[in-house]
Amino acid sequence: MRNNTLLTDLYQLTMAQGYFEKEKCEEAVFDLFYRRNPCGHGYSIFAGLNQVIEFIENINYSEEDLEYLAEQGFNKGFLDYLRDFEFEGDITAVPEGSVVFPHEPLIKVKAPVLQAQLLETSLLNIVNHQSLIATKAARIATAAKDRSVLEFGLRRSHGPDAGYYGARAAVIGGCEGTSNVLAGKDFGVKISGTHAHSWVMTFDTELEAFRTYARNFPNSCILLVDTYDTLESGVPNAIKVFEELQEKGIDPDLYGIRLDSGDLAYLSKEARKMLDEAGFEDAVIAASSSLDEEIITSLDMQDDEIDVFGVGTKLITSSSCPAFGAVYKLSSYAGRPKIKISDNVEKITNPGDKNLLRIYENKDRKIIADMMTLQEESFSEKEELELFDPRDTWKTTSLASESYKIRRMHEQIYSRGEMVYDLPEVKEIKEYCQSEKETLWEEYKRLINPHIMKVNLSHNLYNLKQKLLQKNGVKA
Ligand SMILES: Nc1ncnc2c1ncn2[C@@H]1O[C@H](COP(=O)(O)OP(=O)(O)OP(=O)(O)O)[C@@H](O)[C@H]1O
Ligand SMILES: O=P(O)(O)OC[C@H]1O[C@H](OP(=O)(O)OP(=O)(O)O)[C@H](O)[C@@H]1O
Ligand SMILES: O=C(O)c1cccnc1
């Protein structure tokens, strides 16, 4: 396994040495958050937490790394510190697979500043990638409604890691399985697939190609029917092979066809009729060919007969929105809340050591709003709760006591350097993610112009922010 300890930006190490030299080891709090949902989506899916933990657990500056850093001019004392580096701080995070919204702290790192700073690049690198792909997968799965989506993108992903972790994230976000064998093996998720055009082309006839495939894989036999002529040759040959299986008394678990070109809606409807007329009502129709949520929505409007969508390039590269944009910002140092000012209001940070609360309607467990609070604040469901918009503060909502439920979104991952979290399997994260989506009203899930979830600040946090803004000469 590659040692990723140096997979960071140089400035993290130069700052770390600076802190080391100045013996500046006060506690810092950093929030990892993002500012906008990808593709104009109504929410995002937080993914990558297990890999964040794996990264921290495996931090190890080898002698070779230290020699390299010495050549770059780092000090011996600092390098000796790195040789024995162990993370000593606290980390809390929302569980992987959670539905999340802009500006919410997804991960909170509280540690001696040198240590907290050293984690920045790797944490962002991991979370930015997986959250982006998980969110794109959620969009595609929404468009597919109750039909399955398979992740087919490895060949066109941005290198091996993007394919491997992208498959993991895609499955968390809503894909039923992946064609990526290593991801399937390592993450315990379903792998599936069909065959390529080359398979058909190496045989003298399409029929012979289908027969041979069916002989090899009678129980999972999806035949690619568009190599020559989908309706004139591909589908009739597939039907012939299914009849032959039937004559042999073979009742496959999964069989059917895959369409990979042409008018997928039209071809699926024609193919469905032909398969049904031949008595193969349970034959599956899969389709692929540069699919994404927009094309799937359009196919749906055309009353397509596709059961399974194979989605590659546009999912694994999140081509419509290629970056998640999460950042890692200091919110407190030496017990004092810190704020980053910007002319762009969206970029002003929320100061202080914070908590993220989610407020659900009592009766149907749908999300009403999220609220960031200061760490020390506590709230009781037995009391009325007033929520207000942090921008348009006159917009308020009062929730009657006992009409809502509060959930603290963060779980403890590290406590004083010790990993205290039970890592869930990808299958569990996937199920949790599905249940998370069910906590959203449909209005937040639509693909275009969704409702914007309210992410409120508590009165105390709002007041602290105003105070720091004023102190920095910003008029509220
Ligand atoms: N009925 C349809 N409605 C909307 N989009 C469709 C429909 N059928 C296919 N598409 C999409 O149109 C695009 C067609 O791509 P392209 O021009 O490469 O054609 P193709 O049929 O796949 O050809 P090729 O033989 O080169 O593979 C794909 O993104 C495909 O998903
Ligand atoms: O279109 P995507 O969403 O990326 O989905 C994956 C594509 O990859 C394969 O094509 P490719 O041309 O690579 O191989 P093939 O010869 O097996 O069709 C497959 O047939 C799909 O068309
Ligand atoms: O199994 C398939 O059909 C497949 C796998 C990867 C890419 N395209 C198709």
UniProtKB/TrEMBL annotation:
Q: Provide the reaction this enzyme catalyses.
A: 5-phospho-alpha-D-ribose 1-diphosphate + nicotinate + ATP + H2O = nicotinate beta-D-ribonucleotide + ADP + phosphate + diphosphate
Q: Could you tell me which residue ranges the Nicotinate phosphoribosyltransferase C-terminal domain spans?
A: 354-465
A GO term (biological process) for this protein?
Answer: NAD+ biosynthetic process via the salvage pathway
Q: What is its EC number?
A: 6.3.4.21
What are the protein's GO molecular function terms? Answer: nicotinamide phosphoribosyltransferase activity; nicotinate phosphoribosyltransferase activity
Q: What class of enzyme is it?
A: ligase
Stretches assigned to coiled coil:
none
Question: Keywords of this protein's UniProt record, alphabetized?
Answer: Glycosyltransferase, Ligase, Phosphoprotein, Pyridine nucleotide biosynthesis, Transferase
Query: What's an example GO cellular component term for this entry?
Result: cytosol
Q: Which residues form the Nicotinate phosphoribosyltransferase N-terminal domain?
A: 6-128
What the entry lists under NCBIfam families is as follows: NAPRTase_put (TIGR01513), PRK09243.1-2 (NF006695), PRK12484.1 (NF009131)
Which family does the UniProt entry place this protein in?
Belongs to the NAPRTase family.
Q: What is this protein called?
A: Nicotinate phosphoribosyltransferase
Organism whose genome encodes this protein: Halarsenatibacter silvermanii
